[in-house]
Amino acid sequence: MNIQPNDILEKGFFDTEIDPHLDLFAEIARLKKEKNAILLAHYYQEPDIQDVADYIGDSLGLAQQASKTDADIIVFAGVHFMAETAKILNPGKKVLLPDLKAGCSLADSAPAPLFKAFKDKHPDHIVISYINCTADIKALSDIICTSSNAEKIIESVPKDQPIIFAPDKNLGAYLNKKSGRNMLLWNGACMVHEIFSLEKITKLKIRHPKAKLISHPECEEPILRVSDYIGSTTQLLKYTEVSDATEFIVATETGILHQMQQNSPHKTFIPAPPTNSCACNDCPHMKLNTLEKLYLCMEYEVPEITMDENLRLAAKKPMDRMMEISRAAGLIG
Ligand code: 13P
Ligand code: SF4
Fold this sequence. Notes:
Pathway: Cofactor biosynthesis; NAD(+) biosynthesis; quinolinate from iminoaspartate: step 1/1. The protein is of the alpha/beta class. Helix content is 43%, strand content 14%.
């Protein structure tokens, strides 16, 4: 089929009729085998996508899987910066994203020209950037981190070295508090993790006195302050498995509840309530991916992530640094 770039640019994916009789789970399994493709999915993907993935993980786990796969095609069920990260690590492989419009409010909160001007004002600072940023921001950074390794990454920098932390101000403030540093914070945030209501969570805790409140460090400080445990998506999942508690109020994107429930079927997981009655704790970007779009992207091998080679090399340097520090700290194998 002759697919024109405009077919994809407008909608974000190649929109064509799917035979309604097709078993998409079986088709995706067939395409993975036929094309030697690996399907990586973030925990925030819808349950059907998680169930067909070869690997489900948080940002650090996914980056590590992307760096060590010998598949010919990486299908990334996540958002754009994650697929872009896979491409940075794998220039020779085809990297596919089911919907090119699956962006990230946090990555969008740091436009590269503005960030460059900010960085230029502080020439004595090094830049540590959270992986939730564009390749352009990565290229302006010295080290990348994820929520799983951020503390170790910061520890690896001499105490007297000034640091700019971007783009998430909530994660940055949390890390400042934990490390006793005074990193200069870029004013960005994730729309999903900023939406939780302290008032509603407090009421929920009264109704469920034995429940543990577990939160992602992208949440705002008042939520983190009353949390029983704070961690990356994988750390939250592990905590629910090893904890003696049987009830959890989960302050992060709701997609993770699927794995929590699967891994601990006898425990109860309650999504932390957002400030109004919207489903704002579902990431609208992550949830743009569907099983249908996943099938189409594997069948037609579009949309594909492409990148200028100079940009890729510049963005890879701080990623390599992150991998080295994570390996030395025993966080990845
Ligand atoms: P982690 O996967 O590192 O926990 O990050 C959460 C997130 O917001 C991903 O978009
Ligand atoms: Fe970005 Fe937040 Fe969605 Fe993660 S949950 S992809 S940080 S908007």
